[in-house]
Structure formats: C-alpha cells, structure tokens
C-alpha cells in the first residue's frame, strides 16, 4: 500500500502534466509561423506547467524524477527551436521552467548531451554565440532568470557522471561548462545590477563546488581569480555594493580551497617535496588530447599558480580598510580559511594573510566556535614569526602613516598596533627591540599629529565672564577636561584610538617603563617634543593605575617592586607639574598646553590621594587659581574643572568651601603681591574669581586686600586700564557683599527700606464715626484739664524731696548728665558688620574716579553705586552722608558724552531715589531749576526725532486746541477727526511706539530717563510746580508706562486724569441728572 500510494500520486501528477504538455506540443508543432495568439497561448501553457511543477515541489518532491522532467522538456525543446519567433516573455518563462526541472527533476541524472545543450542554450541566451553579436537585448528580469537557471543546470551537471574523472563524456561537457563560466565572468565584471552579479557569482561558486575533478577546476582558476580580483580591488570595490563584495569573497574562498587546498593537491605537494629533496624537477608529460581539456597538476604549476594568487591577494586584501564591518568579517574568514586549508600550497602568501587576519580579528564579535588566528598559531608555530614581523612593520611605519591626510587610515594604523600587541602578548612573543621601537614610534607619531593639526582658534579674552560652578561638583560635566592635544573635532576619533592603545598596551610594568623613559626625555627637550612626551607619560601612568587595583597588590606580593616603581614615576611627574604651575604664577612664559596637562596631573593626583591631598593645597591651590585669570579660555576651563575635582577629592562640598577653608593663605598670597605692587592682571582676576566662587562668606576676610587695592589706586590712579581692573575687584566685592544675610546687626534681622509714596486712604462711614469719637474724647479731656487748673493747688508743686536732691546732684555734676543721653543714642544706633563697613568704603571711593577718562570705568562705577545703595540704605546715619558725598559727581554724569554712561547714571540715580527717599527732595528741586528740566526736554526731543526718522520723517504730534482750551474727543478709539488731527486710544499708543527708532541711542537714553523720573516721583517728595512740569514732560509716555502712571497718580490722580483727557485718551463721564439743576452738555 505504501508503494502504491506514491505511484498513484505520480500517475495523477503525470496526467496533470499531460493535460498541459500535449496542447503545448500541438501548438508548437502545428504552425510554421507564430501568431500573437499562439505566443499568448504558449506563454499561458508554459506558466501553467511551471506553476504545476512548483506546486508539486511544495507538496511532495519525492515523486519528481528525470523521466517527468524529460517529458515536460519535450514540448519546450521544440519551442526553443523557434525561440526567435516568440516574445522575450515566453523565453523567460521557458528558462524559469528549465531551472525548476534541473533542480528538482534531473538532479544528478542529466545526460551529457542534454547537459551540453542546456549549458550552450543558456550561455548563448546571455552572451550570444562565440564571435557573434546578440540577436536581441534581454531585459534585466530575463537575464536574472537565466542566471538562476544556469546555476541550477551547473549544479545538476557537476553532480552527474558526465564530469567524473573517468567519464568519457567529459570532453563533450567541459567546453560548454567553460563557456558558461566565462559568461558568468563577464556579468560579474561588467557592472550589471547587483542582483545579476550575485546570481553570476553563485553560478561560479556552483561550478567550483560540485565539480570534483581538480584538473577541470584548475583550467577555470586563472580566469576566475582574475575576474574576482577586478571586482574586489579598488577602485571597483569602492563602488560595489556590500552584499556583492561579501558574496565575491565567499566565492574566492571556495575557488581557492577547492583547487589549491592541501587535501585536494596533496599528491602535488608530495611531489614537490620529493623534487626539492632530489633537486631535480619532474619532466612534463607530452601534449595529449587530454591535456588540452584538463591541466596536468605538477609542482611547477603549483609554484606558478601560488605566485599569481599572491599577486591577486595583495590587491584584494586591501579591503581590510573597508568602512563596513560585514565586509571585513568576510575578508577575515577568507584569510583564516586560506591559512588553515591552504597552509602548504599558499605558504608564500602567509605574511600578507597573517597581517590581514591580525588587523581584522575582533574578539567581541567573533564566536568562540570559529577558528581564530591564535588557534592557527598554536597549530602552526611558524606563523608566530609572521605575527612579530607584521607588528614590527606597523610600529615602524606609524609616524609615516600619521603624515597622511586620511584620518581613517590613521585610526586603522593605531588599531592594528593594538590588536597586534594583544596577539603578541597572548602568544608570549616578547621582544625588547619591539618595545623600544614602540616608545619612539608613539612619541614621533604624536609629534607629527600635533604639528599637522590645525591650531584651534584661541580667543585672547582678558575678561573673566566665564560661567563658574559654585554648586556641588557632582554636576554633569564639571569633572571632565577638554582635550589638550588633538582637540579638533576631526581628530576626535584618532585621539580616541591612541588613548585606547595607551590604555591596553602590553602590561603595567611596560607602561611604567615607557612613562619613565618619556619623563627622562621631557627634561631634555622643549617645544612640541616636550609636550608630546609629557602627555604620553601622564596617560601611560594613568593607564597603569587603571589596570592595577589595590586588591591585586594585596594578594600578589611579587608586584611590590612594580608598585614602587609606579609611585616613583608618578611622583616625578607630579613634581614636574608643580614646577610648571609655579612658573605660571611667577609670570614665566610657558606653552599653555604644558600648563593644561599640569592641571590635569594635579587633579589626577587629588583623585588618587583623596583627603590626604590637603597638605599639597598649600603649594598648588593658588597657582591653580591664577589660571582663572588667564586670557586663554581653554586654560580657564581647565582651572575650573581642576578646582571642582580638588574640592570633591578633598572632601569639600563645593569650590566655595574649598577656597573659604583655605582662604587664609590664599588671601595672604594675593595681598602680599598687591602690597609689593606686583599688580599683574592675573592677581586681580584671581581675586575676582575667588570672590565670585566663594560668595559673601569671603567678603569679611578682605579688609587687608581692599586696603591694598585702595593703596594701589592711590599709587596708580593715572593708569586707566589698571584702575578699571582694580575696580572690577571692588565691583565683585560689592556684588557678593550685597548678598550677605545681615549687613546690620539689628535684632539679628535685616530691615528693608521702602520710600514709595502711598495712595491716600479712603474713609468709610465707620472710619468717620471713629474719627468723631476720637475728637469727642479729646474735647472732653481738654475740658477736664481746664477744670483742674481752676482754684489754688491742692498739692505742692515740684518733685518730692528725694527727686529734688537728685536734681541738685545733677546740677553739681553736669558731665555725668551729658554722658547718659549719648549712651542712649549709641544704643539706638545700628551696629554695622565688617561687610557693611567695607561696602561703605567702596562707595566713598567711587566719587574720586567717576571723572575717569575711561567710559567703561565710569559706567562700571555707576553700576556699582546702583548695586550697593539698596544694601547700605537701612543705616541712614551712615548712608545719607555717603549720598551727600557722591551726589555731585553722579548727577554730573547725566551730561556725559557716552550714551551708555548716561543710561548708567540714570539707573544709579533711580537706585539712590529708592534708597534715600525724601532726603534727595531739595537736591532734585535745586537741580531741576538749574537745568535738569531742560536736560529732560532735550533727551525727549532727541528720542522723538529718532523715532520720527525711522518712520520716514513723519513724527506723530499730539495737538491741543489752538485756543488753549480742552480738546474734547469726538469718540474713543483709533481714527481721524474732521480737522485732520488724530484721536488716540490705548491701541494707537502701542502702535506709535513701534519701529526701529526705539533701538537708537537717543531712545534708549530717554527710556532710562523715564525710569529715573518714575523713581523720583515714586520715592522723592516733589512740589506742585515740579510735578506739573514732569507730567507735561512725560505726557506722551506715561499712558503706556504703567509704573510711571501709577507713581504719578499716587501724587495727584486728578492731574493725571486731566492730562489723559486733554490727549483724548479718556472720555468724560455721563452728564449727571438732578431735579431743578441743568448741567452743561458735552
């Protein structure tokens, strides 16, 4: 039953094929000339046959054999005789069917004649007959199907008996097979679409995979290697898709192993060994018919072939620099396979294969089941010498490679040395010559890279506007240094590869030894060589500490000498770094990169020693702080990062605590320099940065420093730049001092000063009743007092006897009587803190330098006055005399020639108004009548002209009635009256202020002046005449300036409403209605 069931399925399938093959045979044999309808019917029948065959393959391929395939092939063979009469679609369908028949029908039992016919048909379809042109061009889809069918036919033919070594039919099939392979060569090399190239490569791979006769494959070897060499070598390889390259490498591996594998040609290898032993070459046999179709494999053939293969491989192996990893992995598999399978036959190719395998081997992506180069070295010890030679060549050529312009080539060269070093270490291939050459090569390569890199654009900025972190040092990025060498973005990857090489090179002992040799070289050279050696020594020491842990040192007592040498090398490095830092504070010119590396060494030492590094702060903290004033932004950034690391490593919460805790000798160092008149930009900038970092906590300790600054100002007042630098320190003192929690010791709580005027309180009925009740009580109290004084006194006047005696004592000792009220007054006075006293001294000093010829200094001093005034205001007994002292020079700055100084003066006066209040009333009244009012009008007119110019010369004018009366607006809104004058509303006010003119200097000065007027009206008492002038002056501004309008309304709301009414910005209320009274209409 089991045998009958497949037979029944086979019979059923045969009947299905018969129903299609018979009509197809009749169609093909019936007509001589093919009509379009015949072509359509033939296409339908062929597609039906293909569908039926493919469906049966999916259901049960076991019933398919060569007989069914031959039965199906009969009608299409007749169709192929008339292929010129049928469209390409029909031929494509036939070829697709032939491929299915060869793969699942004929399999390994295809005859020699049929093999020859199929190979020739498919080859001629693709490339035409030999010496003839193609009859018609085929579309890409047809070519693709043809190569697929050709691959299936080659697989079937190669597995058949026709190509067996002892088969007499081989001479008939070999030429056809060779022509098919040649067609595939052409498709691979012509640059056709990738899918066609892949199918052509699979055809070549099928030919070398299924054919077992090496004499036949040897005939195809030269053309195959040449074709693949063209595809896999630059520049073609750079334009070829990755999948094509990977497939081509796989085909090359199959070709070389199947032809030149040690197992396949072991007889030839044995003959070569005998000939080498006898020193006598074997004579070739005569030229027979067999030798024309099959190549005789001899030792001389092997030698010549290996030489040609080496030439091809030397070009193909350049793919190891390909940018994609999958291509590199395919090339690595090729090298490992050839070193293993063709170890003897391709012995002269071993150096280049070993070098490529070393460069491509990746431990992370490689599977432990795959054969690696280390496994091969263990099997073939002679490969170890090739490993050492390759590594030495890479190390020696590294400086030369670093001179090229391709960064990727540099990175590959460094990566190769790292991989080679790992191979040498794992294989225990020690060499003192290799170690010495590695040190020299690293130093020379780094020098070449530094000299060849484009210098970064360092902006020499004498300012200190760099943002500092006074918060916790755990903030992101505050403990990471920016690169000193190879800092350009294009060199980032190369620098990373060099750092990886330094970190993983050989053992810790070798790293320390290399670092020691570098330090010896550092002290003997200068310039770029010194910088490169210094940086390498530091990185090597740092890498050695990273690789050795404390636990290893405890468990391994043999490393005690190694640890001692490591500590000695690092101590030498730290001492040299300390000398570099000290030379900077002494104003010795040193390359900034050396100083930056020295800062990194200091920070690294602190991270290792932790709190034990605190004694070293005496020597390094001030030199590190001096870099905060460096004009080089990289050095400033390094100094900030170093301070953050020092604070974190030594157990401080932040840099402020670090500097405050060590402020005694830090401040003494700066003060000593100032006292000795060592007034360098570094000293003042360091002091400013220190104050900025520490905040108000350091200000009370700066008495001596501020005194030294005052002394320097007295001695160098004629140097504007120096004076400006010194005042920048005082400005920072003021900025941080005003942040103090308590400037006055008054019950432990600070008191805010507020001089703003308040609106009058509106009394309600209850308030009126309370007021009347108070008046009644006062009247009753006066009446009671009047009754008491009527008549004679009932009791004696004057004090009692004891009190009289007391008064007599006071008359006799008047001095004691005078002391008591003074004591009482002193008790009522506020007690100033050192910070308050310091700020008062700074404010007093500003009056002498507000006339400096340097505009920026004048501006900074005015800003200082604006900053310090609110902080000093609570103690009026101290602050008001200071206002009296600085007032003349501050008010004069309103007439300064520089607009930004005028703006700063307006802000300073506004701050004085807020701090002093009515104390300035008489001063402003005097100045107003002396020309201040005219100054305001001039500033207003200049701003109006600037805005008018920005609008094409059409300035807006708010007009009043020609008779001087009140202008009653016809309506509220935006528009134009019949007489052509504008009616304003809040919407039109906002629109008239737009335009570029408001960004002019005149407009900015006027805006500052308006703010000052708002501060005057808001905080200072002004008389009615001055108020009216101010209101008229700002009549066009205050409607859209809420602060100014509110300040004016607090003083006189009715006048403000009337001014708005005159300008048409408010409408009158409704006409009141009252019986017997008639009100005037609008």
Automatic annotation (TrEMBL):
Residues 14-360 form the TTI1 N-terminal TPR domain. Residues 759-938 form the TTI1 C-terminal TPR domain. Gene3D superfamilies: Leucine-rich Repeat Variant. One of its GO terms (cellular component) is cytoplasm. Pfam families: TPR_TTI1_C (PF24181), TPR_TTI1_N (PF24173), TTI1 (PF21547). Residues 780-833 are annotated as: Disordered. Residues 792-813 have a biased composition (Basic and acidic residues). PANTHER family: TEL2 INTERACTING PROTEIN 1 TTI1 FAMILY MEMBER, TELO2-INTERACTING PROTEIN 1 HOMOLOG. InterPro entries: ARM-like, ARM-type_fold, TELO2-interacting_protein_1, TPR_TTI1_C, TPR_TTI1_N, Tti1, TTI1_rpt. Residues 814-825 have a biased composition (Acidic residues). It comes from Echria macrotheca. This is Armadillo-type protein.
């Amino acid at each position: 039953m089991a045998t009958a069931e497949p037979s029944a399925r086979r019979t059923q399938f045969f009947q299905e094929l018969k129903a299609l093959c018979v009509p197809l045979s009749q169609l093909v044999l019936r007509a001589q000339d093919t009509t379009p309808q015949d072509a359509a019917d033939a296409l339908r029948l062929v597609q039906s046959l293909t569908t039926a065959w493919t469906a049966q393959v999916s259901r049960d391929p076991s019933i398919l054999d060569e007989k069914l395939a031959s039965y199906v092939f009969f009608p299409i063979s007749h169709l192929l005789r008339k292929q010129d009469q049928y469209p390409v679609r029909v031929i494509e369908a036939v070829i697709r069917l032939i491929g299915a028949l060869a793969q699942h029908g004929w399999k390994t039992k295809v005859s020699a004649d049929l093999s020859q016919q199929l190979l020739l048909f498919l080859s001629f379809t693709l490339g035409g007959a030999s010496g003839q042109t193609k009859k018609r061009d085929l579309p890409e889809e047809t070519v693709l199907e043809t190569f697929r069918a050709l691959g299936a036919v080659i697989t079937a033919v190669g597995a058949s008996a026709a190509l067996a070594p002892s088969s007499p039919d081989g001479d008939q099939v070999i030429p056809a097979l060779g022509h098919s392979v040649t067609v595939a060569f052409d498709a691979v090399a012509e640059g056709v679409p990738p899918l066609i190239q892949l199918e052509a490569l699979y055809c070549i791979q099928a030919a070398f995979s299924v054919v077992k006769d090496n004499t036949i494959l040897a005939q195809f070897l030269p053309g195959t290697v040449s074709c693949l060499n063209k595809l896999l070598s630059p520049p073609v390889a750079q334009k070829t898709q990755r999948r094509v390259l990977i497939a081509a490498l796989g085909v090359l591996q199959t070709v070389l192993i199947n032809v030149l594998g040690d197992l396949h040609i072991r007889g030839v290898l044995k003959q070569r060994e005998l000939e080498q032993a006898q020193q006598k070459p074997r004579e070739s046999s005569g030229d027979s018919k067999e030798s024309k179709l099959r190549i005789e494999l001899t030792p001389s053939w092997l030698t010549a072939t290996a030489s040609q293969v080496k030439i091809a491989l030397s070009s193909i192996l350049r793919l190891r620099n390909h940018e994609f990893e999958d291509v590199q992995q395919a090339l690595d598999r090729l090298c490992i396979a050839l070193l293993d399978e063709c170890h003897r036959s391709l012995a002269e190719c071993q150096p280049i294969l070993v070098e490529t395998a070393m460069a491509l081997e990746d431990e992370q992506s490689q599977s432990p089941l795959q054969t690696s180069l280390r496994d091969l070295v263990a099997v073939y010890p002679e490969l170890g010498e090739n490993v050492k030679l390759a590594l030495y060549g890479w190390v020696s050529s590294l400086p030369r490679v670093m001179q090229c312009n391709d960064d990727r080539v540099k990175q590959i060269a460094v990566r190769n040395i790292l991989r080679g070093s790992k191979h040498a270490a794992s294989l225990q291939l020690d060499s003192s010559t290799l170690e010495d050459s590695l040190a020299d090569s690293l130093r020379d390569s780094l020098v070449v890279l530094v000299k060849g890199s484009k210098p970064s654009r360092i902006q020499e900025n004498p300012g200190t506007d760099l943002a500092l972190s006074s918060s916790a040092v755990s903030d992101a990025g505050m403990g990471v240094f920016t690169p000193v060498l190879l800092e350009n973005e294009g060199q980032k990857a190369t620098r990373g590869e060099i750092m990886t090489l330094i970190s993983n090179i050989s053992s810790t002992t070798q790293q320390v030894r290399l670092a020691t040799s570098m330090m010896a070289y550092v002290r003997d050279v200068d310039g770029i060589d010194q910088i490169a050696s210094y940086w390498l020594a530091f990185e090597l020491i740092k890498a050695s500490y990273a690789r050795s842990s404390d636990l290893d040192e405890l468990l391994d007592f043999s490393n005690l000498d190694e640890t001692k040498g490591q500590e000695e090398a690092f101590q030498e490095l730290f001492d040299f770094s300390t000398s570099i830092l000290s030379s900077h504070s002494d104003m010795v010119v040193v390359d900034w990169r050396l100083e930056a590396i020295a800062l990194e060494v200091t920070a690294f030492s602190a991270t290792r020693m932790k709190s034990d590094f605190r004694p070293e702060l005496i020597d390094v903290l001030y030199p590190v702080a001096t870099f905060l004033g460096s004009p080089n932004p990289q050095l400033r950034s390094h100094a900030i990062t170093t301070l953050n690391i020092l604070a974190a490593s030594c157990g401080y919460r932040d840099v402020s605590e670090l500097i405050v805790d060590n402020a005694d000798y830090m401040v003494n160092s700066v003060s000593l320099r100032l006292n000795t008149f060592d007034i360098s930009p570094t000293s003042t900038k360091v002091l400013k940065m220190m104050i900025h970092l520490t905040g108000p906590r350091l200000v009370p300790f700066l008495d001596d420093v501020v005194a030294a600054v005052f002394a320097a100002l007295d001695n160098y007042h004629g140097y504007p730049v120096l004076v400006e630098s010194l005042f920048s320190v005082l400005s920072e003192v003021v900025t941080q001092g005003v942040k103090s929690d308590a400037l006055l010791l008054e019950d432990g709580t600070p008191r805010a000063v507020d001089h703003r005027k308040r609106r009058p309180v509106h009394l309600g009925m209850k308030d009126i009743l309370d007021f009347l009740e108070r008046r009644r009580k006062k009247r009753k109290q006066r009446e009671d007092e009047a009754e008491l004084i009527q008549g004679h006194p009932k009791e004696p006047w004057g004090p009692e006897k004891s009190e009289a005696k007391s008064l007599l004592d006071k008359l006799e000792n008047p001095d004691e009587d005078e002391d008591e009220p003074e004591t009482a007054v002193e008790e009522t006075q506020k007690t100033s803190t050192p910070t308050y006293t310091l700020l008062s001294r700074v404010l007093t000093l500003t009056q002498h330098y507000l006339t400096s010829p340097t505009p920026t200094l004048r501006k900074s001093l005015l800003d200082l006055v604006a900053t310090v005034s609110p902080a000093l205001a609570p103690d009026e007994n101290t602050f008001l005399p200071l206002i009296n002292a600085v007032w003349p020079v501050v008010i004069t700055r309103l007439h300064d020639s520089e607009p930004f100084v005028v703006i700063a003066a307006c802000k300073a006066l506004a701050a004085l108004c807020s701090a002093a209040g009515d104390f300035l009333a008489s001063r402003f009244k005097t100045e107003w009548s002396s020309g201040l009012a005219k100054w305001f009008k001039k500033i207003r007119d200049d701003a109006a002209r600037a805005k008018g110019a920005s609008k094409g010369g059409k300035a807006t004018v708010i007009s009043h009635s020609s008779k001087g009366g009140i202008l009653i607006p016809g309506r509220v809104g935006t528009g134009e009256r019949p007489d052509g004058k504008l009616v304003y509303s809040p919407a039109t006010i906002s629109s008239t202020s737009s335009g570029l003119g408001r960004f002019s200097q005149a407009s900015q000065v006027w805006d500052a002046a308006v703010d000052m007027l708002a501060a005057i009206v808001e905080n200072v008492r002004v008389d009615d005449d001055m108020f009216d002038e101010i209101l008229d002056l700002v009549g066009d501004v205050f409607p859209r300036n809420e602060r100014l309008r509110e300040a004016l309304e607090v003083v006189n709301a009715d006048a403000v409403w009337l001014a708005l009414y005159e300008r048409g910005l408010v409408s009158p209320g409704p006409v009141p209605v009252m019986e017997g009274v008639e009100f005037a209409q609008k």
